[in-house]
Design a protein that fits this description.
alpha/beta
């Protein structure tokens, strides 16, 4: 899955919604201002960059060099983010960290293996934080139209062993039987407006319609997407309320005696 998001970085940074200030503040409170935090699968720094203002250091790790380059560009002048190429199979090769945050990247991983390894690597107070859509997922107003286009181009998602795509098992359920089974969660809402360019650009930020996967069909895919979207909504404008869940998972507290 080395080219999972090949070519998506500029679309990801421009068209993917951020998680909102409230979600970032929640993460910062859970970590503490003197902490070193690993953002695993950081993309272009959607969490890493705003979080860096609130903690001692962020290790921003991603397997895609394009994402890292985009992150470095966006974080120009931010001195406490280290951008490193790596993935969930190379955690022991990374510098030490106090806590870890994962966004949508977590659903691509062998989650049970990652959590077991984090139990070895994180200090006793270490937090595993997952930030992303709620358990019910997102009901995007343009999704039926885009699903038709994806079917036309015969593109499907990739899967990884024990990933969400492979098992359908939600993060909550995986964490509940992991070393980090003590969980707290909060949900934050913010309303977003999308125009035609934004919805089309969003499609090119996804793994299943990444430019590297579409290859020489990018222009044809874009044209087909625009056609379907205009048929769906001639005004070419959508409003959507996104819900971001911040899940903080810790090891259960053990009491002496």
């Amino acid at each position: 899955m080395g080219d999972l998001f090949g070519g998506t970085a500029p679309y990801y940074s421009k068209y993917r919604a951020d998680y909102g200030e409230a979600a970032i503040e929640h993460l910062a409170r859970a970590f503490g201002q003197d902490s070193g935090v690993l953002d695993l699968g950081c993309g272009p720094g959607t969490v890493a960059i705003p979080l860096a203002r609130r903690v001692r250091e962020v290790l921003a790790v991603d397997p895609d060099e394009g994402m890292l380059a985009e992150g470095r560009r966006l974080a120009s002048g931010v001195r406490n983010v280290r951008w490193l190429c790596g993935d969930s199979t190379k955690l022991r090769e990374l510098p030490a960290f106090d806590h870890i945050v994962m966004g949508r990247s977590f659903h691509w991983m062998d989650r049970r293996a990652v959590l077991a390894e984090l139990d070895d690597l994180l200090p006793p107070h270490g937090v595993v934080a997952i930030v992303g859509p709620t358990r019910d997922g997102e009901d995007l107003p343009w999704e039926p139209a885009m699903r038709r286009v994806r079917d036309e181009f015969d593109v499907n998602t990739f899967t990884a062993t024990n990933s969400y795509q492979a098992t359908g098992e939600h993060h909550h359920d995986v964490l509940a039987v992991s070393p980090f089974s003590s969980m707290d969660l909060a949900v934050y809402e913010h309303r977003l407006t999308y125009d035609l360019d934004a919805v089309v650009g969003l499609q090119l930020s996804y793994s299943y319609t990444a430019p590297a996967r579409l290859g020489d069909r990018v222009a044809a895919f874009t044209e087909a997407a625009r056609k379907e979207l205009v048929a769906l909504n001639p005004e070419g404008r959508w409003e959507h309320t996104t819900e971001t869940e911040v899940l903080i998972a810790r090891r259960p507290r053990t009491w002496p005696g």
